Every structure is written in structure tokens, then in C-alpha cells.
Amino acid sequence: MTDQLGVTLAGLGLEPELIAELEQTGRLMRVGEDVPLISPGMRAMALPLVIEGTLRIMREDAEGNEIFLYYLEGGDACAMSISCCLGTQISQFKAVAETDTVLWMVPMNLVDEWMGKYRSFRKFVIDSYQQRFDELMQTVDSIAFMNMDERLMRYLLDKKQSSGSYVIHKTHEQIAQELNTSRVVVSRLLKKLEREEKVELFRNRVEVM
DNA sequence: ACATTAAGTGATT
DNA sequence: AATCACTTAATGT
């Protein structure tokens, strides 16, 4: 078995001492596809670093309506859990494994300590925060200013990029839930995109051209 | 063969 | 864009 953790950490540009600490104090966690990692209201005890797979980050209201926000991929840290750690400690977001995912969980108290101790870690956290913020703003834009068809197309392309595959294994119903709209609307828009030859439709599957 | 789930579509608001 | 109502197609038992 290859040391995927080592590979991931090496790509982050961190000090060797920090990497050693990371490897010593963290623990491995596997999350199966569609298994929720955290829901709003839960307390985050550790900072998840994605080693393999993808996490889907969503906003969810009390009625269970949810909106897709962005994906976390290999090498990404969950910036929102850092805000949990430094602030209220209560999650405002929902994270679900999009595929089978391997995570390296780092205790929150150490995250705080390392921010002061290691320059590279401070930069990593801030950069990661900046990246998430940018993605979040794109999503805000798409919800506020874009039509549903543009939003859908953006969602499909986003998914394509994060998974590295043009095949999307989701039902119209699932897509509708993530965009917080109705299945009928998604079906209609997908059909339109198919006529424009931007996608191809199958049962339980959408292929992006 | 029957039930269930996914997807397509017209009409209405 | 949302909802209803209905149809058709695919899949599971």
C-alpha cells in the first residue's frame, strides 16, 4: 500500500518538523460514500484533511433543505472546521463523502498551536481559507445572479472537474436536492442541455460532453 | 406479472 | 421556476 498520506503532505509545502507532528498526532479516518461527516450543530473535534476522495460541503436549514456549496478534494483542508475551532466550535455546514474518502484528522487544539509555531501551516490555513472563500463567492453569485440553467451547468462542470470524470452518477432528484430545486425543473433543463449537445442523459447517469 | 423508482411532458400558477 | 398530474421507461422481486 502506498503512503498516500506522505504524498499528500509532501505536496503542501510544509516544514519537515510539522509533517512529522502531523503524522504523529493525526489519525486516519475512512468515510464511505454518502456518509455524512458532520451536520449543522455538531461540534467539530478535529480538522479533516482530505487525502483521497471528495467531500461535498453543503448548507442545510432546519427543514432539511440543502444547497451544494463546493467540493473538497485531495490536499484540501476543511476551512470551515477551522472557523469552528477558533470560534463557536459549532458547525454551520454539512459535509458528506461524495465518494469513499480517506481523511487525516488533526486535533483542533494542535491546529491552534501550529498556527503560531509554523509559518508554513499558518500560510496553508490562510490560503485554504482564501480558496474556500472564493469558491463560496462563486456559489453566492450563481445563486443570486444566474438562471437555473446556468447554475445547473456550473454544477455539472464543477462535479466533472472535482471527480476527474465526465460521468456523473446521480439521479435528477439528487441533483435537484443539491441545487435546492425540484426534480421536474432539473429534468427539463437537462433535456434542454441534451438538445444543445452539452450533455448526454441516461438512467442514474449524466455525461458531460 | 407486479411494484417501485427514474425520467419526460403538458398545463397551470 | 414551482407544482400537479399523468405517462413512459427501466429495474427489482
How many helical elements?
Answer: 8
Helix content: 40-55%
Strand order within the widest sheet?
2-6-4-5
The residue-averaged pLDDT reads: 89
Provide the CATH topology of the largest domain.
Answer: Jelly Rolls
Gyration radius (Cα, Å) is 18 Å
Major β-sheet profile: 4 strands, antiparallel
Distance between the termini: 35 Å
Summarize the structure.
The protein is of the alpha+beta class and 209 residues long.
What would you say this structure looks like, in words?
With 209 residues, the protein is an alpha+beta fold. It starts with a helix and ends with a strand. The chain has 8 helices and 10 strands. The longest helix has 27 residues, at 119-145. It has helices spanning 4-10, 16-25, 79-86, 108-117, 119-145, 148-163, 172-179, 183-195; strands at residues 27-31, 36-38, 46-52, 55-60, 66-72, 94-97, 101-107, 167-168, 199-202, 205-208. The chain folds into 2 domains: 2-143, Jelly Rolls (Sandwich); 147-208, Winged helix-like DNA-binding domain superfamily/Winged helix DNA-binding domain (Arc Repressor Mutant, subunit A, Orthogonal Bundle), CATH 1.10.10. It binds a DNA duplex (13 and 13 nucleotides) through helix 8.
List the keywords.
Jelly Rolls; alpha+beta; 209 residues; Arc Repressor Mutant, subunit A; DNA-binding; 8 helices; elongated
Which helices and strands occur, and which strands form pairs?
Blueprint: H1 4-10, H2 16-25, E1 27-31, E2 36-38, E3 46-52, E4 55-60, E5 66-72, H3 79-86, E6 94-97, E7 101-107, H4 108-117, H5 119-145, H6 148-163, E8 167-168, H7 172-179, H8 183-195, E9 199-202, E10 205-208
Antiparallel strand pairs: 1-7, 2-6, 3-7, 4-5, 4-6, 8-10, 9-10
Helix pairs in contact: 4-5, 6-8, 7-8
This protein binds a DNA duplex (13 and 13 nucleotides) through residues 147-148, 171-173, 181-185, 187-188, 190-191, 201, 203-204.
